[in-house]
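Hypothesis: this fold can be encoded by more than one sequence.
Test: take the structure tokens below, design a sequence, compare later.
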């Protein structure tokens, strides 16, 4: 019997460094990195203009991504998903994905202050001007109102990465 791969995913406010950390975790764990931003831009280029657009298209790709990730995990491949796990509902999607194939997981929670996130978002706007319309303080505050830190009763294997 082939041992299952392990799934790594991330929780953290917008600008916390989830995508940057995902690359490091993928490298360190010999894992396949799957990026939501890449899937969305490949399938819905220039169609995401608002947060509501993002939610619609993100939910559209999830069934395809889920099956793909489960196939990788079932053959023993570690997977890092650069998809947000910032709400209880989002985290439930990840835990269902894992429980259906019987694999282990690690949720990496990037604990950052609002100020740290906003500084990173400002820096990202300069480095990636194509994201400037979405990477704003207004969008940060809109998205942050939905943020839910992981709780013990969710049954997650959480690694806390604090940076103050």
């Amino acid at each position: 019997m082939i041992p299952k791969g392990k799934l790594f995913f991330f929780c953290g406010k917008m600008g916390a460094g989830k995508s940057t950390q995902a690359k490091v975790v993928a490298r360190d764990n010999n894992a396949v990195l799957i990026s939501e931003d890449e899937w969305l831009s490949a399938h819905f280029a220039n169609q995401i203009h608002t947060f509501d657009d993002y939610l619609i298209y993100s939910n559209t790709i999830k069934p395809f991504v889920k099956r793909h990730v489960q196939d990788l995990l079932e053959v023993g491949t570690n997977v890092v998903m650069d998809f947000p796990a910032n709400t209880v509902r989002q985290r439930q999607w990840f835990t269902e994905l894992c429980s259906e194939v019987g694999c282990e997981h690690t949720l990496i929670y990037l604990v950052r202050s609002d100020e740290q996130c906003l500084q990173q978002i400002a820096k990202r706007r300069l480095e990636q001007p194509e994201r400037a319309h979405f990477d704003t303080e207004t969008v940060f505050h809109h998205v942050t109102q939905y943020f839910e830190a992981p709780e013990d009763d969710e049954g997650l294997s959480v690694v806390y990465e604090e940076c103050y």
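The chain has one domain: 6-162. The mean pLDDT is 93.
Hypothesis status: open.
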